[in-house]
Write a structure and sequence with these properties.
single chain; 222 residues; alpha/beta; six-stranded parallel sheet; 11 helices; 45% helix; 17% strand; globular
């Protein structure tokens, strides 16, 4: 089995928040019915060649099972081809742009996911046409979550420092209680992964491992 990131938050950042608000984590409780696990871009294009991507599959699956059982929502977000964006094509170059534009695959959404992940009835399955799943007009996810009364999102998937970070920041900007799951996001390197976790924890929301969140879900059910 592939090993996961050696994730790390500088103790000075923990101390900074503890001094400012009196606690290490802003969101110390979860209400399962108002919580969504958001799984970003777990498709073969991003997972196959990345051992860190394969390593997070068990934690995503554990969180999905626990949150469903507790009455929460699991949302699978996949990249859509979308319309061509000339500026993005100019930025990447035609060949690489087309590779990224079609990286989500074809066919039914559930069949495009990494084989180790299985949507269940009642889960949300959507496509996005931008890096962020919460950018207005580029993904139906926010409206679907709002219709279910969701106020808390747990961000997981690939890659940490691009689509996951973009989604997490926009979710926070929209007013969701947002948590990046430290060992259920994957980037190419520990350095890239930890840079995102540092910035997100410092300025936007919480960063916690899967076991912490599973404990909160368990506590909520007692």
């Amino acid at each position: 089995m592939a090993s996961g990131h050696r994730w790390w938050i500088d103790p000075r950042e923990y101390a900074r928040h503890e001094e400012r608000r009196g606690c290490r984590f802003a969101f110390g409780r979860l209400t399962p019915s108002r919580t969504a696990l958001v799984v970003i871009d777990m498709v073969p294009f991003f997972v196959t060649a990345n051992p860190y991507g394969r390593a997070i599959v068990p934690n995503i699956a554990r969180l999905a099972d626990a949150l469903r059982s507790a009455g929460g929502t699991v949302a699978w977000v996949l990249p859509a081809p979308g319309e061509r964006v000339p500026a993005r094509e100019e930025f990447f170059g035609p060949r690489v742009y087309e590779t990224y534009r079609t990286c989500g695959g074809e066919g039914a959404l559930a069949g495009r996911l990494w084989p180790g992940l299985t949507p269940h009835p009642g889960d949300v399955l959507v496509e996005k046409t931008a890096p962020s799943a919460f950018f207005p007009g580029r993904c139906p996810l926010p409206g679907l979550l709002d219709a279910r009364g969701i106020d808390t999102v747990l961000i997981t998937g690939t890659v940490t420092n691009v689509c996951c970070e973009s989604s997490a920041r926009d979710a926070a900007a929209l007013g969701y209680r947002t948590v990046m799951v430290a060992d259920a996001n994957a980037a190419r390197t520990d350095a890239e992964h930890n840079a995102t976790l540092h910035t997100f924890y410092r300025s936007f929301g919480d960063v916690r491992p899967a076991d912490d969140l599973l404990a909160l879900l368990h506590s909520a059910g007692r």
